[in-house]
């Protein structure tokens, strides 16, 4: 027997000595009293919702939303040729879709980071999901005369998805700590490769099933609206820093200018953000060009012909999408387990594991361009191992941020890390690789072999960027312990300082 916060009696809601109130706080269990009255149906429903708001359930719902977030953005890539043919635009015109999406995503991220550190986060998340879902669904009805409107819709989708990517990790950071937080963030960031791969698969499959590419943009919005409702109902709004030892007693908040100065001085944050940009550069280029590269490899091997039909085969995109899903799962699981094991040996385990995985990934990605001319199967094996090692560090990078940044500025930190990784990474890498490939083709007689080789030479830039990212993670390891200690000291200071006193950045 336990009692709700308004004094009504709830039957069988808990067998413990504590009860969670509607505000989310825990109050001591109370004995039955003659003054208590039976709960009304609406109150029982609210109490049932509260019992379902466990941290694990919240992390699962947020991870589901993140899968949809990435699935939506890569669904368009899965039907890119169909979109180009429908609107009758050039390669540069079709490339504008990704550019507008990433630019709007980058610009909106710092804004949502600011809002996420100061206002109700789950309301912002839900509004963002509803917004991009409705815009995506609406864009599937745009006629072929209004391509500019379709491009604009992708920019609006980028704004909506930016709110989710900037804020949702901070809620998980406030629900868990230490190894539990690493595990939950690993599940959350599994959504990046899993959602990306499912986007390829969903786009191609929905198009083939309906024989109309528009239906590829009508599945993920329905799932997105469902995720938004689940977030409103079952995801709590934890107090910022509640999972940290002193975070729940924070009495003051730093200004935005103070937050930015502190992040700029935080060497672990800066170097890990640069390393994240290297990962984004490689994944952005691979996501767009590897299926095309493998298709050209098969033409060189004479196992396939150049596409001259109205509808090109999508086998390579489907296989690449499936590999991305599997490697994403393996990467985050191996990353979480390895980090947990290595923390028993060294406190610098997080950045060191990331550095080793990046350097190992560069080796296998280089081998892709060596074996692809002779063996597609060998190329897929190298892609599998290289992507697994590359995806291994997604969740660990987020965990590094949680360690070295205090709770009240984490949303801002996540937002600016996202801004940096896109600006220096996938915002320009697909276009840059295409530009290098086009430049190489102009200098020689155009042939199937040279089209294959020129793209391979351009993609060879990726392993060098990945090695550079590994170096940035090694630099992070040098400063990680000092920055973590500074964050803990400032958290102590914030917990003891009255709200009327401003705290300077450290």
Characterization of this structure:
This protein has about 500 residues and is mainly α. Helix 7 crosses helix 15 and helix 12 packs antiparallel against helix 13 (about 350-370). The protein is built from 19 helices and 5 strands. Residues about 1-35 and about 500-505 have low confidence and may be disordered. The strands form 2 sheets. A 3-stranded mixed sheet has the order 1-2-5, covered by helices on one side. The two termini are about 50 Å apart.
Main β-sheet, in a few words?
A: 3 strands, mixed
- Range of helix content: over 70%
Low-confidence sequence ranges = 1-33, 499-506
Strand segment tally? 5
End-to-end distance: 49 Å
Strand content: under 5%
Q: What value does the Rg take, in angstroms?
A: 24 Å
SSE pattern: EEEEEHHHHHHHHHHHHHHHHHHH
Q: What coarse outline follows from CA principal-axis ratios?
A: globular
Average of the residue pLDDT scores: 77
Number of helices: 19
Q: Looking across the biggest beta sheet, what order are the strands in?
A: 1-2-5
Q: What structural class do the secondary elements suggest?
A: mainly alpha
């Amino acid at each position: 027997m336990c009692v709700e916060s308004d004094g009504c009696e709830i039957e069988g809601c808990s067998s413990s000595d504590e009860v969670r109130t509607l505000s989310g706080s825990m109050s001591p269990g109370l004995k039955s009293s003659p003054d208590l009255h039976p709960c009304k149906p609406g109150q029982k429903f609210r109490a049932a919702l509260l019992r379902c708001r466990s941290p694990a359930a919240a992390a699962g719902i947020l991870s589901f939303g993140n899968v949809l977030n990435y699935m939506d953005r890569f669904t368009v890539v899965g039907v890119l040729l169909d979109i180009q043919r429908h609107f009758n635009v050039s390669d540069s015109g079709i490339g504008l879709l990704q550019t507008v999406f990433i630019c709007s995503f980058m610009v909106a991220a710092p804004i949502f980071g600011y809002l996420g550190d100061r206002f109700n986060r789950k309301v912002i998340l839900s509004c963002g999901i509803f917004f991009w879902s409705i815009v995506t669904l609406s864009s599937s009805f745009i006629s072929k005369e209004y391509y500019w409107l379709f491009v604009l819709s992708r920019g609006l989708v980028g704004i909506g998805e930016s709110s989710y990517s900037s804020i949702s990790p901070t809620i998980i950071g406030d629900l868990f700590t230490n190894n539990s937080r690493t595990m939950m963030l690993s599940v959350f960031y599994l959504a990046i490769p899993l959602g990306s791969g499912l986007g390829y698969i969903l786009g191609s499959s929905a198009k083939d099933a309906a024989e109309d590419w528009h239906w590829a943009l009508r599945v993920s919005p329905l799932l997105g609206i469902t995720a938004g409702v689940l977030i409103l109902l079952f995801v709590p709004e934890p107090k910022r820093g509640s999972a940290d030892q002193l975070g729940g007693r924070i009495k003051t908040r730093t200004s935005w200018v103070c937050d930015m100065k502190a992040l700029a001085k935080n060497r672990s944050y800066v170097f890990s953000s640069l390393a994240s940009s290297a990962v984004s550069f490689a994944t952005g280029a691979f996501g767009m060009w590897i299926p095309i590269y493998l298709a050209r490899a098969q033409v060189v091997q004479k196992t396939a012909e150049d596409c001259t039909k109205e509808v090109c085969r999508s086998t390579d995109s489907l296989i690449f999408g499936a590999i991305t899903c599997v490697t994403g799962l393996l990467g985050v699981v191996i990353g979480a387990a390895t980090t947990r094991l290595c923390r028993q040996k060294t406190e610098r385990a997080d950045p060191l594991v990331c550095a080793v995985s990046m350097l190992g990934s560069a080796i296998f990605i280089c081998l892709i361009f060596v074996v692809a001319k002779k063996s597609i199967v060998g190329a897929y094996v190298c892609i599998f191992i290289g992507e697994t090692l590359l995806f291994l560090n997604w969740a660990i990078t987020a965990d590094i941020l949680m360690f070295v940044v205090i709770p009240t500025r984490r949303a801002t930190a996540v937002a600016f890390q996202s801004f940096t990784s896109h600006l220096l990474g996938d915002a320009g890498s697909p276009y840059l690789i295409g530009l290098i490939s086009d430049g190489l083709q102009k200098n020689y007689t155009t042939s199937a072999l040279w089209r294959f080789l020129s793209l391979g030479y351009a993609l060879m830039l990726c392993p060098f960027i990945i090695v550079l990212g590994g170096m940035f993670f090694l630099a992070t390891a040098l400063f990680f312990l000092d920055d973590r200690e500074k964050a803990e000291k400032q958290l102590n200071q914030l917990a003891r300082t009255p709200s009327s006193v401003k705290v300077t950045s450290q």
